[in-house]
Amino acid sequence: MKAQRKLVSGAATRLIGSPFYVLKPDIFDGVLREFQVSYLYLEDLVGNTPLVKLKRLWQGEHVTVLGKLEGNNPAGSVKDRPALNMIAKAEARGEIKPGDTLIEATSGNTGIALAMAAAMRGFKMTLIMPDNMSEERRASMRAFGAEIISVSQSEGGMERARDLADEMQAAGKGRVLDQFANADNWNAHYESTGPEIWRDTQGTITHFVSSMGTTGTIMGVSRYLKEQTPDVEIIGVQPAGESQIPGIRRWPVEYLPKIFDAKRVDRTIDVEQELAEQTMRAMATQEGIFAGVSSGGAMAIALQVAAEQEAKGEKSVIVSIVCDRGDRYLSTGVY
Ligand SMILES: Cc1ncc(COP(=O)(O)O)c(C=O)c1O
Prior knowledge:
Blueprint: E1 6-9, E2 12-15, E3 20-25, E4 32-37, E5 51-53, E6 63-69, H1 80-92, E7 101-105, H2 109-121, E8 124-130, H3 135-143, E9 147-151, H4 157-170, E10 175-176, H5 183-200, E11 207-211, H6 216-228, E12 233-239, E13 267-271, H7 273-287, H8 293-312, E14 316-322
Parallel strand pairs: 6-14, 7-8, 7-10, 8-9, 11-12, 11-14, 12-13
Antiparallel strand pairs: 1-2, 3-4, 5-6
Helix pairs in contact: 1-2, 1-5, 2-3, 5-6, 7-8
């Protein structure tokens, strides 16, 4: 008899699969027995991403550099975790039910992840975004059945998209998830990304590096890891000066996401767009890791920290988040 298992997976620890019973001959002795069989749902595959060691971009005596491959999530990015968690938790609290319409102003990975998560859970998804977003992104969202509302740059771009989402909610047209202020965003990482890193490094992690967009990843992972050991250093990465790196921002203080809590980040380091792109290409050509620009930025900083630790001769295990896959950036010409 195969027992139903519990997994640390995706948005939360939950029972996986839907068990049913079959009567069949045992493959070992041919005796007719009842077996419990369970299969995974697609949402069980959100999370539990691989943690891989660099072998060419970094070779140190004292320091190990690891990348957590979030592009292996079903819709291709770290955002699958909060997208599923924001929907699943609101549903569990009875705030929304399948068939309802969800609304979010987002242009990036969150839109694609939410479109998938809504399809998995039977919700309608309306995504509002500036009209300069690439056609492949829109097509991915539409493929999952999302409705897209475009806002032109002259109308106010992303800021107007956010206002329109709130107006639609006020008019009873659906519920806004608001990843920048939603605790279920960082909570997804507190419940899954953090525990996975702790488990897969067997508690040896010394440094965690993450690029910062909504800051959900770094807030959740920091909370979890610091509870295990206050010694782990949490390093946030933001674009330097005028650098444009999709998915991450150098937030002016007044626009910092509501979920951001400065005391959970030990060090914030700026990365130049050029270095982020170079490192991204080196990850592909020297390690076979095909990732996006923000992942290149985080890895560039992870390598910088690795060199510092190696020079000090301190045994260190550095984990850097590889947020998504390179395919998503091909049309931008960065590869
Ligand atoms: C490509 C990319 N990198 C990094 C991030 C940052 O993740 P977080 O929002 O958890 O800070 C995002 C978020 O959307 C992203 O799309």
